[in-house]
Amino acid sequence: MKNKKLAEASIQRSALCDLDRADPLATLRDQFLIPDNLLYMNGNSLGPLTALAQEKLSRAVSDEWGKKLIRGWNTAGWYDLPWRLGDKIGQLIGAEPGETVVCDSTSVNLFKAVAAALSLQSGRTKIVSEAGNFPTDLYVLDGLSRFTQDKYEVDIRARSDVINAINADTAVVVLTHVHYVSAEIFPMAEITQIAHDAGALVVWDLSHSVGAIATDLTASNADFAVGCGYKHLNGGPGAPAFIYAANRHHAAMRQPLSGWFGHANPFEFTDDFTPAGDIRRLLCGTTGVLGATGLEAGVDVMLTADRDAMFEKSKALSNLFQQLIEECSVGEVLEIRSPLIAAERGAHISYAHESGYAIMQNLVERGVIGDFRAPDNIRFGFSPLFMRYTDVYDVVEILEDILTSRTYEDDKYVATHSVT
Ligand SMILES: *Cc1c(COP(=O)(O)O)cnc(C)c1O
User: Fold this and answer.
1) Both 19 and 103 in a single domain?
2) Which residue in 121, 235, 365, 381 has a CA-CA distance of 20 to 30 Å to 372?
3) Each residue of 15-30: pLDDT tens digit?
């Protein structure tokens, strides 16, 4: 490595202190309970705990579950949670009220969304998706295809070839808006238009978009979408996910996980299934109230932030990270795997290094939490609600130290854990 040093970069830490002081979102950091001396760059994988979530969860356990017991369904707002919270998330993704509900996991919701889209597409037999999409999305499509005894062919194409696969046989196109490793963004409105022109529908996975970049389902004329509650929305480990369907599809769409919460009148306890007339037909069973309570707190905190400021700050943070890396020796050994322009990527960035796993382990031990994605990517998230500009500087400084001193080569950093 050459002698390019972070200390000699064009941006000084003191200037970043000034940026932090002037940051209109700075006070939001106080809402997050992040341990001292931890540089948390993994809000894109598991958002941190908010004071509001801690308070609401503890109240939900002690006062609601503990004292109200089953009365809580009516008196603590449990029954309404899926659509009340769905509409709050809807504000972040450009949905109209009544188009989004919270329930199940992203994987299960993807199954329901794709099946609902297929229910509107008789005669068409192809499902198109991207090679290298988030694995669960591809696994769910594989499962769905097998379950229908291969009635549907899943056509998985390289990113640049996805559009070419959309044709008159295509029933549904299933894409992740922001790629989980590279953070590349698919142009939502443009692809939706191409699909519609071919008579196909689109299911968008917004797991790395919601709370991370400006997303407008209505303006994009989107059909269906799903997304994750525990990443940028800070809902807590395993928080429920959400599912969206455009109003125009509600009356005709059907989905096969027809549980009682998707019934028009669950408490009539009839033998026959009559689907709810609205978005609720995408629900299946009883709401995981505690998980949804944590998610509602995370979303409530996010809704207090100015949305444009939030997305702009996240781009500024990732831009700063990229620039500092380029200006010191780290840039000579890490290869960027994300678009070079912040506006063209989501709120995370990936770099490749053959010892990526060990480097990340070493970073974690030094109090910098990002993550590793096989085969060789280290990934860093830029959450505008709690990250400071100086944090970015401090992370690059530690990274520079690890790479220069080669401490990551120690055997203890090479042993793999089951969750990466
Ligand atoms: C995180 C993520 C998921 C998560 O799915 P779960 O069912 O919550 O495990 C799904 N899709 C994408 C694109 C993701 O990034």
Assistant:
1) no
2) 235
3) 999 999 999 999 999 9
pLDDT at 415: 78
Q: What pTM did the predictor assign?
A: 0.97
Nearest ligand 1 atom to alpha carbon 176: 13
207 lines ligand 1 (CB under 6 A): yes
Identify the pLDDT of residue 3: 62
Q: How many CA atoms lie within 13 A of 383 on its CB side?
A: 29
Full residue range of the structural domain in which residue 105 is found = 53-303
CA atoms within 13 A on the CB side of 392: 33
Active site residue 379: yes
| Chosen domain end from 285, 303, 321 | 303
Query: What percent of the chain is modeled with pLDDT above 90?
Result: 97
The finding on whether 23 has its CB within 6 A of some atom of ligand 1 is no
Cβ neighbours of residue 375 under 8 Å, at least 6 residues apart? none
Q: Is residue 218 part of a domain?
A: yes
Binding site membership of 155 for ligand 1 (Cβ less than 6 Å): no
Please tell me whether residues 14 and 159 are part of one structural domain.
Answer: no
Is residue 340 located within the same domain as residue 262?
A: no
C-alpha–C-alpha distance, residues 196 and 224, integer Å: 13
Assigned domain for 39 exists:
no
Is the CB of residue 100 below 6 angstroms from any atom belonging to ligand 1? Answer: no
Instruction: Establish if 46 belongs to a structural domain.
Output: no
User: Is 231 annotated in the active site?
Assistant: yes
351 is catalytic: no
Mark whether 230 is an active-site residue: yes
Ligand 1 pocket, residue 170 CB under 6 Å: no
Atom of ligand 1 nearest to the CA of 108: 7
Closest-CA residue to 32 (of 15, 20, 19, 47): 47
Domain end marker among 303, 331, 351:
303
Rounded to whole angstroms, the Cα distance separating 360 from 420 reads: 10
Which CATH number belongs to the domain containing residue 401 in this structure?
3.90.1150.10
37 is a domain residue: no
- Residue in 244, 379, 389, 408 annotated catalytic: 379
Our answer to whether residue 205 is catalytic in this structure is yes
Residues 234 and 122 grouped into a single domain: yes
Provide the domain count of the chain.
2
Q: Which residues of the chain have pLDDT under 50?
A: 1
